[in-house]
Amino acid sequence: MAHSDWTSRMVIWGSFLLALVVQTIPWPGTLDLLRPSWLLLVTCYWVMALPHRVNVGTAFTLGLLWDLLLGSTLGIRGMMMSIVIYLVAMNFLVLRNMALWQQAIIIALLAMGLEVFIFCGEYLIQDVAFNPLSLWSGVISCILWPWMFLLLRRVRRHWHIK
User: Fold this and answer.
1) Can you list the alpha helix ranges (DSSP code H) found in 25-98?
2) Cα dihedral sign for 152, 153, 155, 161?
3) What angle do CA 116, 87, 36 make, to 5 degrees?
4) Taking a C-beta distance cutoff of 8 angstroms, is the pair 44, 85 a contact?
5) Of 104, 110, 117, 143, which sees the most CB atoms within 10 A?
6) Backbone angles phi, psi at 98, to 5 degrees
7) pTM above 0.90?
8) pLDDT digits (tens, 9 = 90+) for 66-85
């Protein structure tokens, strides 16, 4: 049983590590505005699937790691990821019972909200300008959600993560 628990943790944290790597890979020029929120997608899946293992504290830790990797103000993304994942965690039963396309729309709104929250947090500390084109990343996240959901569900079932 302990081996299974250890393997489950490694698979979950491995998916987070992969999401962090993909999230921080540089994109060319204006395509950077279309970058989906990979970390949000993966975290939302694990919070909906296993809320007893992945929670707001996990989101805060991942946001801090994201801040460290980007070299931005420490704590902004951690706090904002916590707020967004709190909304998911409080409604995980409702979200889990929605159709996949409805979940995708909610994920798009959450991704757009995360972009706005991060901007607001950074605006309080330094002078930054908001680019409305960055909200397109929410649309891309919406399009990717069904595939991400199905992929992570397959990983969870393959590794028997409970």
Assistant:
1) 38-49, 56-70, 76-90, 92-96
2) positive
3) 45
4) yes
5) 110
6) -80, 160
7) yes
8) 999 999 999 999 999 999 99
